[in-house]
Amino acid sequence: MLASSKGLLSKDINEIGDSVAGLSGVLAFLWLIVTVLLQNRDLNLQYNEIKDMRAASESQAKSLESSQIFKTLEYLEVKLENISEYVCQRRSHIIEELENFSQENGTLYNGKTMLDLADAMDYFIINSSDKNALEFDLSNIRNDFTYQSYLRVQAIYINIEEVVVVYDALMINVPDNIKPQVTKYINAHKKQLMVDWYDKMLPYTERLYQVLMRAAVDHGIGTEANRHLLKIFAEQDS
Question: What is the model's pLDDT at position 68?
Answer without folding.
Answer: 65
